[in-house]
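Colleagues,

Please find the record for the two-part complex below.
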Amino acid sequence: MKPTPSIRGGLIPRSAIRKLIPLSKETEKHGIKVIKLNIGQPDVETPPEFWEGVRHFKEKVLAYSPSEGRPEYLDALISYYSRFNLSFTREDIVVSQGGIEGVLYSLIACADPGEDILVPEPYYSNYLGTAAMAQVNFIPFTTRAENGYHLPERSIIEKCITKKTRAILFSSPGNPTGCVYTRAEMELLADIAQKHNLFLISDEVYREFIYGDTEAVSIFHIPGIDDHAVMLDSASKRYSVCGSRVGSIISRNKPFLDAVRALATVRLSAPTLDQLGIANCINTPDSYFIRVKADYKARRDIVVDALSALPDVVCHRPEGAFYVMLKLKGIDTEVFAKWLLTDFSHKGETVLLSPGAGFYATPGLGRDEIRIAYVLECGILKRAMEALIEAIRQFRLL
Amino acid sequence: MKPTPSIRGGLIPRSAIRKLIPLSKETEKHGIKVIKLNIGQPDVETPPEFWEGVRHFKEKVLAYSPSEGRPEYLDALISYYSRFNLSFTREDIVVSQGGIEGVLYSLIACADPGEDILVPEPYYSNYLGTAAMAQVNFIPFTTRAENGYHLPERSIIEKCITKKTRAILFSSPGNPTGCVYTRAEMELLADIAQKHNLFLISDEVYREFIYGDTEAVSIFHIPGIDDHAVMLDSASKRYSVCGSRVGSIISRNKPFLDAVRALATVRLSAPTLDQLGIANCINTPDSYFIRVKADYKARRDIVVDALSALPDVVCHRPEGAFYVMLKLKGIDTEVFAKWLLTDFSHKGETVLLSPGAGFYATPGLGRDEIRIAYVLECGILKRAMEALIEAIRQFRLL
């Protein structure tokens, strides 16, 4: 006899973003180049300030950091946020191992098993894994490609709220949509949270990636939200350091943050070297972000210009992050994404995409949508779009 | 109105090991030196091989590592374990963020909420936090100071097993006890696991720290255990790199490890630089371990020689790790540990200890026990023992 894993262990959702990778490796074995548009792993060079920060470590023993974070790291964050007119103290912040630990700890700290978290869908697919780990239910309200995945009207959100609802979790700028909520939308969410006494968990890891004149509104810019707001952040995208595991959980609701602090104590410490690296990234010059943003804007426009012009494609120009979510009417994107790897190439290349269904909780939704991460340089992206357009044309003829 | 955290958020156990730290800071403000025997943070210098490994990273982008671990890291582990006659492949291993993430993921992957995990008590107090996060029950069977915290007889363990039991979780060499299970004890646990179809989660993070002639037995040294065994490990203590967050989860039960891999995918990546540092620690010369072990053995003997001679103290000489758990008959160690900080000093010094109750699940147990982490140099430890003996004498007179 052999012990079997837990039922929940078998149900942890396998990543929608990563599950085609084995197939993609097969494709490459056959000599076809696969342009990877599936993972939000930026190609942007990590700034030298990170490496300088790592080298600041001169102690003889690489010891545990305080569970809530190294003081240098917390102080650098405080200084960083002050640039956005956000004023925090060390007591408001707990370091997390990447943004995702912040999601997990927030869910555990605000909801008991079997309680509900409201989430606009499509949402970042790894959220679903944290919900499974925390044993909470995701109650989705749907946003639509047709209006750029902005929020639906208030009544649609409110009708999802029951006595079991404990929080609304969202990201803006959004993954996978690129949608940046307006101040009015943030105020709407804040007002709903206040009226129904909910936590408002605002994932702001793409804060720096907003293009054009769109205003960057943090949840903490909304007056009166202190008791409800939880801001999640991560250095991964901001400084192109996904392999460092440092984020933050910020709240002025003391009992909530005390619970988060207890969870952080259980896992002892976030990585010490990474915290020092990120602390020194406060010295990254503005020119870095200006250049990076200009690059991403150009990339976004290559993708959107290529695809939004196609018939039977719904593709709004997202305001931020580095993703485009789009609808390919009449195409089963799960089948299409596999077909791209098994039966298609254009000039020796094909593309790896994330099918949309993995970003939805509602069964059946997203099956004609895909997510594109535009984290590659413009020349490659242009070739990828040429191949993708040709693929859509051919696939529609099948 | 203000949203309140979850009930479970309020119940996450605050660390037994760390909770006296604020009081200790107060004591130091009054000019009294506090010798810290509470936390297993070694003072041993991190070997240069770790820093060399970190410097091996030459890529321009600090990218996500594969969720299951960097290949260099996995291969280094395989090579390391082969020295102990343990043969693994990459498919048997998933990297964890420190040993503690391994505990959490193992509990989630082997048990559903409300199911039972058997644990010998006293146990590492952070286990309790992972059980709360995983929503599983700890069912303790008690080990006793009087026989050096070795396992009780088989019937005592077996009578804790019900249909809800999914695993036995233990550490050997043990935290907080320093007890190293004999081959016969490992075989007993293996036999119980096989008979009752349980997972056997063996936390072996103190593998290197065994003194004298005691044999180092891994769970994977027991024949026929492959379907049941889960080995947890961490580089933190081995190479004195607690601030790097790299451990491992090893199992040949494929459905179990698949579930662990899915959990690892949710959290994306363990820290990349730390993995490279640890990978290169495979080159740490044997002389490093020989010296470190000799140091710890001398430290252990200072503590045990000083305390085991006292009347009304039960203090066996532990075979491994760097902890001594001992019984101070008739003393409430919670009160005593606080009194040491508020009302005692000897030659301008006092000691910070971990009271025993935090290492027990059974209410009332451990209240006359303390844990001492002997992670300081011999001279300081001798002064600490002098102060502690004087404190015990004075406290008994109160």
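Residues 116 and 137 of chain A are 5 Å apart (CA to CA).

Comments are welcome before we finalize the supplementary table.
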